[in-house]
Protein: Phenylalanine--tRNA ligase alpha subunit
Amino acid sequence: MTSSSLDLETQLSDLKTNALSAIAQTSDLETLEQLRVQYLGKKGQLSQVLRGMGKLSAEERPRIGSLANEVKEAIQGAIEQRQENLQKSQLEAKLASETLDVTMPGVMRSLGQVHPLNGMIDKMLDIFVGLGYTVAEGYEVETDYYNFEALNTPQDHPARDMQDTFYLPDGNLLRTHTSSVQIRYMEQHEPPLRVIAPGRVYRRDTVDATHSAVFHQLELLAVEEGLRFTDLRGTIKEFLRQMFGDDLQVRFRASYFPFTEPSAEVDVQWQGKWLEVLGCGMVDPNVLKAVGYDPERYTGFAAGLGVERFAMVLHQMDDIRRLYNSDLRFLRQFI
Ligand code: 2NL
Structure:
């Protein structure tokens, strides 16, 4: 054995001892990687020692070679082992610091609620959809024709009084009822039809506890061969029964509307008093003619109601303005 082979043996054994001790003392993955480069890298300590192998004799070379291999594998193995341990303890530390208490209450979001007016409209739509009606919507700005003319209300009619309507500079107006929606619907469809039109309408009214210049209406319309006043009566009674409850007393009083003939106003017996809740009638033949229907073949019935009035009666409200000024202390009562 030559001195240089002994020398290399010692160097390799020292290298191994130092490396293993340094690896064992490492407490983070970054330093561990630095050690790998330092010992096993291309310019690392092991490569440097192996450079000395050139001086060895042919017999010594394989022995030192396999020794070097052993040292390399030992260091490699130690690094991998350490790496695994460090990764594992890092993960454990992370998990420990991020523990999640799945039994903790969540972050509550307040959901908001349906406004009593919309709640009332929803309830009405549900009832009429149950009776086979289709919901239709239209424009709040209307032409004179769709708001009045087609509804048997010509220019000189008392209901056309300037006082009753908001006119726009271009001659259009803010609709005073949702009947215009139904006129447009009839123009687009052939009987038989059942349609309801809910929506915002405008009247030139002075605002007080029971009047508003902007309010909500719901109108219904049915056109078919052979429809009679009893069909209207049965429909209205069923609607009111579902709104106010079973065993409701309902009264039809003769009345007048330009677009229906005959016409009636309907009262219900409520908390000991007769209360007017809606207007209705058989569609005037002139209205059917205006949309191109043959009034000899088809008859129709229609009704209109103010949604605010129903909300006020059913929720016992004393002032219509409470429905518009968004006071949550008031609105929260109607969940
Ligand atoms: C009321 C009365 C009513 C109608 C609305 C109507 C619609 C068409 C044809 C015929 Cl397209 N009539 N609507 C009929 C009778 C009464 O409303 O007091 N509303 C608040």
